[in-house]
Design goal:
By secondary structure, the chain is mainly α. It has one domain: Methane Monooxygenase Hydroxylase, Chain G, domain 1 (Up-down Bundle). It is 63% helix and 0% strand. It has helices at residues 6-31, 60-76, 79-87, 89-94, 97-123, 139-142, 145-151.
């Protein structure tokens, strides 16, 4: 066995990584203090004391803000390779000016689409954390006056 194939190297790195993780978790379990008490074992959410059951309904705005964040975060990941390529001065000097201008135009179109998406989300109030104020309903106009007077 003179050489290890490429797959063997990957396997060795994988096994080494798993062994390292298991070793550090074991050392942490052995060294850390274990002193549970009532306050440490209390369930909490974002530093808030729990009220009610876990089956309560959440306002949809939390999910909308989380989805919008994930969408823009995933889209911004595409800008990092662009920034790395354009950050290298020697690459910029060696490449064709037409390719560079085409790439810049594509990038600005991409950023423009992201800005338009952000403006749309902001204009529709999807980034607001405040609770919406429900408008009171005038039941007198919805119920015939004869039925209303009978009931009252």
């Amino acid at each position: 066995m003179d050489e290890i194939s490429g797959f063997g190297v990957v396997l060795l790195f994988f096994v080494g990584g798993v062994a390292f993780i298991l070793f550090t978790l074991l050392v942490g379990k052995i060294l850390r203090p274990h002193r549970p008490n009532k306050e440490k074992l209390t369930i909490y959410e974002s530093g808030e004391e729990p009220t009610g059951t876990a089956w309560s309904q959440f306002n949809i705005r939390f999910y909308v803000v989380a989805l919008v964040f994930l969408l823009f975060e995933a889209e911004l990941v595409f800008l990092f390779p662009w920034a790395v390529v354009f950050g290298k001065e020697d690459l910029v000097k060696e490449t064709d000016g037409l390719w560079m201008s085409f790439t810049m135009i594509e990038t600005f179109i991409f950023i423009g689409i992201l800005i338009l998406g952000l403006a749309y989300v902001w204009a529709n109030g999807m980034l607001g954390w405040e609770k919406s104020r429900p408008k009171p309903i005038n039941f007198k106009s919805k119920i015939p006056s004869s039925a209303y007077s009978k009931f009252n």
